[in-house]
Amino acid sequence: MSYQIRLMGDPVLRQAASSIENIDGRIVQIVDDMVPAMYQAEGIGLAAPQVGIQKRLFVYDIGEGPQTLVNPEIVDSDGEWSFEEGCLSLPGLSFELIRPKQVHLVGRDLDGNEVSIEADELLARLFQHELDHLDGVLLLDHLERDERKAALRQWREIQNPPNSDLVSRTDISLP
Ligand code: NI
């Protein structure tokens, strides 16, 4: 089965996901389906709630092949780093956010082994972003009130572009 990535506005993105008790065949299947969905969307990370699954897991690939983290937790963080962050659930939007530069994440891999990762910069940012998804938090929640309002306006325009009927008719007539 191929997953459709849920977009902001879908209530599933606002719910906290539950811990995974057993890493069974069903969980492995979810991961097997999430990884191609992430690549197809050209993302570097994808959390289970983004495909409608309320489980605490995410997949990612920052150039070293696909990885999975189950029941991840950030146990320590340090520093500050500014980075322009996007999200597959908010295509077309990105925001410069300051978050901790380093994080220490613990969790399990898909084989159930305990993992402990000291991450810096991009990987640390990815971990914080995906952890947010497991708690029902989206990028907009990190913005100041005015910035958030502007972002919501922009989002509505992306979702319903003015003259969208005209645009689609024009597209159809093109060779
Ligand atoms: Ni995201």
3D shape: globular
Bound molecules: nickel (II) ion
In total, the number of domains comes to: 1
Main sheet: strands, sense, barrel:
5 strands, antiparallel
Helix segment tally: 4
- From the alpha carbons, calculate the radius of gyration and give it in angstroms: 17 Å
Classified in CATH, the superfamily is Peptide deformylase
Q: Which strand order does the major sheet show?
A: 1-2-3-6-7
Gap between N and C termini: 32 Å
Can you walk me through this structure?
31% of the residues lie in helices and 26% in strands. The protein has 175 residues and is α+β, with helices and mostly antiparallel strands. It has a single domain (11-159), classed as Peptide Deformylase, CATH 3.90.45. Strands 1-2-3-6-7 form a five-stranded antiparallel sheet. The protein has a two-stranded antiparallel sheet with strand order 4-5. Strand 6 (102-108) and strand 7 form a beta hairpin. The model has no long low-confidence stretch (mean pLDDT 93). Nickel (II) ion binds next to helix 2.
SSE inventory with pairings:
Layout: H1 25-40, E1 45-47, E2 57-60, E3 67-78, E4 81-86, E5 94-99, E6 102-108, E7 114-120, H2 121-134, H3 145-159, H4 164-173
Antiparallel strand pairs: 1-2, 2-3, 3-6, 4-5, 6-7
Nickel (II) ion is lined by residues 87-89, 129, 133.
Q: What is this structure, in a nutshell?
A:
This protein is of the alpha+beta class.
Considering the chains and any ligands shown, give keywords for the structure.
single chain; 175 residues; alpha+beta; Peptide Deformylase; five-stranded antiparallel β-sheet; two-stranded antiparallel sheet; 4 helices; 7 strands; globular; binds nickel (II) ion
